[in-house]
Write a structure and sequence with these properties.
Helices cover about 35% and strands about 20% of the residues. It has helices at about 5-15, 25-35, 70-80, 90-95, and strands at about 20-25, 45-50, 55-60.
């Protein structure tokens, strides 16, 4: 079974601007969920990649799977307007994935 970080790494190496991947809980997360009566079902997410004007590369994992009502260009603009959406200051929380 592939690790979720491997799925993201594969996406980064693919050169694609977006893809849909299925994330599965790791054993620790699965145990936590089971102990707290939470679902352990895999989660489909859309992975987006874009570059900001200042050359900062951004990779987002979002639950908005349908591309028609939520095109990449519009999501990029929303991110530019408010990069804190979805978390408290995403750029600081971002985790570098090693090649």
């Amino acid at each position: 079974m592939k690790k979720n970080s491997d799925l993201v790494r594969e996406f980064l190496h693919s050169g694609k601007r977006e893809a849909i991947v299925t994330l599965k809980p790791c054993p620790a997360a699965k145990n936590f969920c089971e102990e707290n009566n939470l679902t352990t079902n895999p989660l489909k997410v859309r992975v987006l990649r874009f570059t900001l004007k200042n050359r900062v590369k951004v990779v987002l994992l979002i639950s908005l799977l349908d591309r028609r009502p939520f095109p990449l260009a519009e999501l990029k603009e929303l991110y530019i307007k408010n990069p804190q959406v979805g978390g408290s200051n995403l750029p600081r929380r971002a985790k570098k994935i090693k090649d």
